[in-house]
Structures are given as C-alpha cells and as structure tokens.
Specification:
mainly alpha
Length: about 80
C-alpha cells in the first residue's frame, strides 16, 4: 500500500520539473511571488510535521516541493540579467 504514496510523491514532485526548467532556462520566474512563497512555506511546514511524525513518504514529498518552490523564488528575486 505504501507504493501508492511513492507514486504520489513522484507525480507531485515531478510537477515542479517543467516549471523549474523553464525558470532556469529563462533566468527569471514569471510565477506570482505570493504563490511561490506560500507554496514554499506550506511545503516546508508539512515537511517538518511529517519528519517529526517519522513519515518518510510525506517528508520526501515536501522536501522536493519545497526545493522546487525555492528555485523559483530565487529566480523571481534575482533574475539573471540579459546580455
């Protein structure tokens, strides 16, 4: 039954891949900053909660989604200058 959780992890975490790729290639992020900050805060909070409950599935999921959100926050705050 745990495998269902890992399928969910993969799908949800992979959802950030196209956005992160687009952001890094463009050198900037067009996604709303409030959304990104709330997504990062929410994922980080859930990761902490899951970690404290010793829930590997949700700890991994929220660590990956926190990372995806933070990549986009970085490029939103520090866009690469075009030359």
């Amino acid at each position: 039954m745990e495998w269902i959780g890992y399928v969910g992890i993969a799908a949800f975490a992979l959802a950030w891949v196209p956005q992160c790729r687009e952001t890094m290639l463009a050198g900037r992020c067009e996604v709303n900053l409030s959304f990104l900050l709330l997504a990062a805060l929410g994922s980080f909070s859930l990761m902490t909660y899951a970690f404290l409950r010793h829930d590997a599935v949700f700890s991994i999921l929220n660590a990956l989604t926190t990372g995806g959100a933070l990549v986009n926050v970085y490029y939103k705050l520090f866009p690469r200058l075009r030359s």
